[in-house]
Specification:
The protein has 266 residues and is mainly alpha-helical. The chain has helices at residues 4-12, 14-28, 38-57, 70-92, 95-98, 100-105, 112-138, 150-174, 177-191, 204-210, 215-228, 238-265. It is globular, with a radius of gyration of 20 Å.
């Protein structure tokens, strides 16, 4: 998918990529009194709210799942995972438009821009998810070694998100309605994915249609590992993997074919 020349270009501009990630992280909390401490306080507050409200006040329980914090873990696993996907796609679809001036003024491999988007999203996700792991350890809910089976699932999630955002990013340069439509579509997509509710409560007739949702097996893999301590059902991840690869190939082809034209449209 990525040829040797493209890899060389990315490696040659690795300083540009890391510098951009660092600058964006710093600018996000510039002129705030607590600075980078907000990267800890914001996700910590979110986790505490979900834990206290859903586990203690509402006493929500997952069907056939015991444990005081089962629903909170289920909810956090789904929301944090979806948040990573949503951040990559939301920023990726607009990255060429947002960096139009940079693209026109500076010569660099344009493929670096989606990489910067993914790197920034992974930094934010890493901070939040690390706090979630601390919560799992403190509450005695850490699933053990099976936790590391999430690494290939995380790689699949990123691959799917970057492939989709590459396709959307190129199309959005020429057809600005694409970004607007996808923003609305994402809101429906979220509620059609068992993030805040278990799939077992969905009627069987509706569940058949939800099987076409590629995010469901990815989200459920995280929830399965973190709530039940069971390894992902790998066979259910074959279809999302195939789709992610197709989107990455399509995204790169669109990018290579339209890279020159995009400059004129920006």
């Amino acid at each position: 998918m990525i040829n040797l020349a493209m890899l060389r270009g990315i490696w040659a501009y690795r300083g540009f990529v890391t510098g951009s990630v660092k600058r964006e992280f710093q600018s996000k909390y510039r002129n705030t009194m607590l600075g980078a401490a907000w990267t800890v306080l914001s996700p910590l507050a979110m986790i505490l709210v979900y834990t206290l409200v859903f586990s203690q006040v509402m006493r929500s329980k997952l069907p056939e799942t015991a444990g005081e914090y089962a629903y909170s873990i289920y909810l956090c696993a789904g929301i944090l995972t979806w948040g990573l996907f949503a951040e990559i796609t939301a920023r990726g679809q607009n990255v060429f438009l947002e960096q139009g001036n940079l693209i026109k003024k500076i010569s660099f491999p344009r493929i670096c821009l989606p990489i910067i988007v993914v790197a920034n999203a992974l930094v934010n996700f890493g901070i939040i998810f690390s706090l979630f792991i601390v919560f799992l350890l403190a509450s005695g809910q850490f699933p053990g070694m099976v936790f590391f089976t999430l690494l290939p699932v995380l790689a699949l999630l990123v691959l799917f998100a970057i492939g989709l955002s590459m396709v959307l990013g190129v199309l959005n340069v020429f057809f600005r309605d694409v970004g607007q439509f996808f923003s609305i579509f994402t809101q429906f997509w979220f509620w059609l994915t068992p993030v805040v509710y278990p799939s077992s409560i969905v009627p069987e007739s509706v569940r058949t249609y939800l099987e076409w949702n590629p995010m469901i097996p990815i989200i459920q893999s995280f929830q399965r590992v973190l709530v039940s301590g069971q390894a992902p059902e790998w066979q259910h991840l074959l279809a999302p993997t195939a789709l992610a690869l197709v989107l990455c190939v399509l995204g790169l082809k669109l990018f290579r074919k339209r890279a020159g034209e995009m400059v004129d449209e920006l």
